[in-house]
Amino acid sequence: TYAPKLVLLDISDINCIQDVAKEILNCYGCVDILINNASMKVKGAVQSISLELDKKIMDANYFGPVTLTKAILPNMISRRTGQIVLINSIQGKIGIPFRAAYAASKHAAVGFFDCLRAEMEEFDISVGTVNPTFICSYHRQPAPGNWEASIWK
Protein backbone atom coordinates (compact mmCIF):
# COMPACT_ATOMS: atom_id res chain seq x y z
CA THR A 1 0.00 0.00 0.00
CA TYR A 2 1.30 3.41 -0.96
CA ALA A 3 0.46 6.67 0.74
CA PRO A 4 -1.19 9.07 -1.69
CA LYS A 5 1.01 11.80 -3.07
CA LEU A 6 -0.25 15.00 -4.65
CA VAL A 7 1.70 15.94 -7.75
CA LEU A 8 0.75 19.17 -9.46
CA LEU A 9 1.00 19.28 -13.22
CA ASP A 10 -0.02 21.83 -15.82
CA ILE A 11 -0.63 19.48 -18.73
CA SER A 12 -0.24 22.36 -21.19
CA ASP A 13 3.32 23.03 -19.96
CA ILE A 14 5.10 20.44 -22.08
CA ASN A 15 8.51 21.32 -20.60
CA CYS A 16 7.66 20.15 -17.06
CA ILE A 17 5.89 16.87 -17.92
CA GLN A 18 9.07 14.79 -18.18
CA ASP A 19 10.20 15.93 -14.70
CA VAL A 20 6.79 15.16 -13.19
CA ALA A 21 6.80 11.69 -14.74
CA LYS A 22 10.27 11.04 -13.29
CA GLU A 23 9.07 12.23 -9.87
CA ILE A 24 6.13 9.80 -10.00
CA LEU A 25 8.26 6.87 -11.15
CA ASN A 26 10.92 7.63 -8.51
CA CYS A 27 8.25 7.71 -5.82
CA TYR A 28 6.29 4.59 -6.77
CA GLY A 29 8.55 2.69 -9.16
CA CYS A 30 5.82 2.23 -11.77
CA VAL A 31 2.48 3.38 -13.06
CA ASP A 32 -0.13 0.66 -13.52
CA ILE A 33 -2.89 2.87 -14.95
CA LEU A 34 -2.47 6.24 -16.64
CA ILE A 35 -5.70 8.18 -17.13
CA ASN A 36 -5.28 11.28 -19.29
CA ASN A 37 -8.21 13.46 -18.24
CA ALA A 38 -7.13 17.09 -18.57
CA SER A 39 -8.57 19.36 -21.20
CA MET A 40 -8.90 22.93 -22.33
CA LYS A 41 -11.44 24.37 -24.74
CA VAL A 42 -12.42 27.67 -26.22
CA LYS A 43 -15.56 28.73 -28.06
CA GLY A 44 -15.32 31.10 -30.99
CA ALA A 45 -15.34 31.50 -34.73
CA VAL A 46 -12.22 30.28 -36.51
CA GLN A 47 -11.34 33.80 -37.69
CA SER A 48 -11.61 35.22 -34.16
CA ILE A 49 -9.36 32.68 -32.43
CA SER A 50 -5.66 33.52 -32.63
CA LEU A 51 -3.07 31.00 -33.74
CA GLU A 52 -1.47 31.46 -30.30
CA LEU A 53 -4.66 30.23 -28.65
CA ASP A 54 -4.96 27.35 -31.15
CA LYS A 55 -1.46 26.28 -30.06
CA LYS A 56 -2.36 26.48 -26.35
CA ILE A 57 -5.39 24.26 -26.95
CA MET A 58 -3.27 21.80 -28.94
CA ASP A 59 -0.61 21.73 -26.20
CA ALA A 60 -3.15 20.93 -23.49
CA ASN A 61 -5.33 18.48 -25.40
CA TYR A 62 -2.86 16.72 -27.67
CA PHE A 63 0.80 17.31 -26.81
CA GLY A 64 0.19 17.16 -23.04
CA PRO A 65 -1.34 13.66 -22.95
CA VAL A 66 1.06 12.42 -25.64
CA THR A 67 4.11 13.74 -23.75
CA LEU A 68 2.97 12.26 -20.43
CA THR A 69 2.14 8.93 -22.06
CA LYS A 70 5.53 8.78 -23.78
CA ALA A 71 7.24 9.53 -20.46
CA ILE A 72 5.44 6.69 -18.66
CA LEU A 73 5.36 4.20 -21.55
CA PRO A 74 8.95 2.83 -21.33
CA ASN A 75 8.27 1.69 -17.76
CA MET A 76 5.08 -0.09 -18.84
CA ILE A 77 6.81 -1.69 -21.82
CA SER A 78 9.69 -2.97 -19.67
CA ARG A 79 7.16 -4.50 -17.26
CA ARG A 80 4.95 -5.71 -20.15
CA THR A 81 1.83 -4.51 -18.38
CA GLY A 82 -0.25 -1.38 -17.93
CA GLN A 83 -3.35 0.48 -18.95
CA ILE A 84 -3.56 3.86 -20.64
CA VAL A 85 -6.85 5.70 -20.96
CA LEU A 86 -7.61 8.92 -22.80
CA ILE A 87 -10.74 10.71 -21.64
CA ASN A 88 -11.44 12.66 -24.80
CA SER A 89 -14.66 14.04 -26.27
CA ILE A 90 -17.29 13.23 -28.86
CA GLN A 91 -15.75 16.19 -30.68
CA GLY A 92 -12.76 13.94 -31.32
CA LYS A 93 -15.09 12.10 -33.70
CA ILE A 94 -17.25 14.95 -35.06
CA GLY A 95 -16.70 18.68 -35.29
CA ILE A 96 -19.24 21.35 -34.47
CA PRO A 97 -19.23 25.06 -35.30
CA PHE A 98 -17.24 27.43 -33.07
CA ARG A 99 -15.06 24.67 -31.61
CA ALA A 100 -12.47 24.19 -34.39
CA ALA A 101 -9.32 24.29 -32.25
CA TYR A 102 -10.85 22.04 -29.61
CA ALA A 103 -12.19 19.53 -32.14
CA ALA A 104 -8.88 19.49 -34.03
CA SER A 105 -6.92 18.75 -30.86
CA LYS A 106 -9.35 16.00 -29.87
CA HIS A 107 -9.25 14.43 -33.36
CA ALA A 108 -5.45 14.40 -33.19
CA ALA A 109 -5.50 12.74 -29.77
CA VAL A 110 -7.89 10.02 -30.94
CA GLY A 111 -5.64 9.31 -33.92
CA PHE A 112 -2.54 9.05 -31.76
CA PHE A 113 -4.10 6.79 -29.14
CA ASP A 114 -5.73 4.56 -31.79
CA CYS A 115 -2.28 3.97 -33.30
CA LEU A 116 -0.75 3.48 -29.86
CA ARG A 117 -3.39 0.83 -29.06
CA ALA A 118 -2.27 -1.27 -32.03
CA GLU A 119 1.42 -0.84 -31.23
CA MET A 120 1.07 -1.76 -27.55
CA GLU A 121 -0.85 -4.99 -28.12
CA GLU A 122 2.38 -7.00 -28.32
CA PHE A 123 3.41 -5.69 -24.87
CA ASP A 124 0.05 -6.52 -23.23
CA ILE A 125 -0.57 -2.83 -22.57
CA SER A 126 -4.20 -1.83 -22.92
CA VAL A 127 -4.96 1.54 -24.52
CA GLY A 128 -8.48 2.94 -24.59
CA THR A 129 -10.28 6.15 -25.44
CA VAL A 130 -13.50 7.39 -23.90
CA ASN A 131 -15.43 9.93 -25.94
CA PRO A 132 -18.28 11.27 -23.80
CA THR A 133 -20.84 13.67 -25.15
CA PHE A 134 -21.04 17.24 -23.90
CA ILE A 135 -19.97 17.87 -20.32
CA CYS A 136 -20.69 20.88 -18.14
CA SER A 137 -17.24 22.31 -17.39
CA TYR A 138 -16.00 25.10 -15.19
CA HIS A 139 -16.03 28.34 -17.15
CA ARG A 140 -15.07 31.91 -16.46
CA GLN A 141 -16.81 34.69 -18.35
CA PRO A 142 -14.15 36.63 -20.23
CA ALA A 143 -13.58 40.33 -19.94
CA PRO A 144 -13.74 42.10 -23.31
CA GLY A 145 -10.52 41.52 -25.22
CA ASN A 146 -9.23 38.92 -22.73
CA TRP A 147 -8.99 35.71 -24.78
CA GLU A 148 -7.22 33.77 -22.02
CA ALA A 149 -10.31 34.14 -19.83
CA SER A 150 -12.39 32.50 -22.55
CA ILE A 151 -10.57 29.19 -22.04
CA TRP A 152 -12.59 26.40 -20.43
CA LYS A 153 -10.58 24.18 -18.13
From TrEMBL:
InterPro entries: NAD(P)-bd_dom_sf, Sc_DH/Rdtase_CS, SDR_fam, SDR_family_member_7C. Keywords: NAD, NADP, Oxidoreductase, Signal. GO terms for biological process: intracellular calcium ion homeostasis. The keyword Oxidoreductase applies. The keyword Transmembrane helix does not apply. It holds the Pfam family adh_short. One of its GO terms (molecular function) is oxidoreductase activity, acting on the CH-OH group of donors, NAD or NADP as acceptor. Belongs to the short-chain dehydrogenases/reductases (SDR) family. This is Dehydrogenase/reductase SDR family member 7C. The gene is Dhrs7c.
